[in-house]
Amino acid sequence: MVETLLRYRGDEASAAPAVSFAAFADAGNAAAVRIEPGDDARALLPHLSQLARIDIAFPSFGDGRGYSAARILRENGYTGELRAVGDVLIDQLSHMRRCGFDAFAPDRPISADAAAKAFATWPEVYQKTVDGRTPIWALRHRETDHG
Q1: How far is it, in rounded angstroms, from Cα 112 to Cα 45?
Q2: What is the pTM of this model?
Q3: Are strands 6-7 and 103-106 parallel, antiparallel or unpaired?
Q4: The domain containing residue 68 runs over which residues?
Q5: What is the pLDDT of residues 92-101, one digit of tens each?
Q6: Are 101 and 130 in contact (CB under 8 A)?
Q7: Do 49 and 79 form a contact (C-beta atoms < 8 A)?
Q8: How many Å apart are CA 115 and CA 77, to the nearest integer?
Q9: 35: β partners
Q10: Residue 57 located in a structural domain
Q11: Which of 32, 33, 44, 50 has the fewest CB atoms inside 10 Å of its own CB, making it the most exposed?
Q12: How far apart are CA 105 and CA 7, in angstroms?
């Protein structure tokens, strides 16, 4: 079975419609907002506690600005749903998870089984990021300290 939304959270999905970044800036009272490439995610920082979901648009798989937006939001304490929306490809999923995405709404559906395989492809990581996994260089350093 092919899913249209892949979600990796224990809470219930927000059904609130995502307003545009500009509409949120004008009204400031929405529960979900959509960030497009070029929008500055830092403008949302004072409002993170009121947002149940932030959708980050990927109009093209080659546009990586959404990765930076996700990381900015997570590193500044956002704990709500962070959803990658648009031209999201299977080989990007694990990298998106590392930046803090916990939900995906790809233009072309991806099965839950295919996503699970993608997440398991690289069990060791080299960079420190928001997903909490210890980079392999730090693991190696620990081994030499104790060995």
Answers
A1: 31
A2: 0.83
A3: antiparallel
A4: 2-121
A5: 998 899 889 9
A6: no
A7: no
A8: 26
A9: 56
A10: yes
A11: 50
A12: 9
